[in-house]
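Project standup — Tuesday

K.O.: blocked on the structure for the chain from last sprint. Re-posting the sequence here as requested.
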Amino acid sequence: MAVRVKPHRKFQQIYWVTLENKSERLATKNLVPRINVYGERLIKFKSEEYRVWDPFRSKFAAAILNGLETVPIQLDHKVLYLGAASGTTASHVSDIVREKGHVYCVEFAPRAIRDLVNNVCKFRYNMSPILADARLPERYSTLVEKVDGIYCDVAQPEQAKVLADNADLFLKAEGWVMLAVKARSIDVTKEPSKVYKQEIESLKDRNFHISEVVHLEPYDKAHAMVVAQHVSSQIG
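H.V.: unblocked you, prediction finished:
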């Protein structure tokens, strides 16, 4: 059986690849043909190249496979990515937003951002690496324009607060956010469900409407993806 590719029925710029063994995998269209980022398989189909999207390496992909209903990151969007690490998921976001979009990648660890620069951003001109602490968004406020969405995947306490503080500076009116809640990074003594509730309430207190919450097992233990939209205080 030959490999086949078809668009995801809900989400633009996201695809299903059917492999030779008839198994299906998520994929994005490779913005930089012939170059992969983390060892993912490259698939050629009808003169286009696609990158298989590994849910065990990307919480975004895991959320889609676990039934995510809303993907607010779309073609031509400007996205602020907090906790970009070495660029595994951020590179797929780069594929989704394409040439007219942009991904501002904030990462605190020097080694991770070195890998991000050398292995990803060097080839992808719609990505900007920013060595900075996501808890201090005012320090990179001159480097980031207003964005359509924020993706937050930071391994530290008060993840929702970090996201909301960045949203105050950078998110467009009624923009959307995706928050990968890492329960063990917030409080190892609490049940993950209590941590999720705590972070969700924190977002609500900062004028976010929660669209959905998707748990990420079996791909990531004690993780959940929260999708929310910012609303004005007048709307509530």
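K.O.: great, moving the ticket to review. Helices lie at 59-65, 88-97, 110-121, 159-170, 183-186, 192-205. The radius of gyration is 17 Å.
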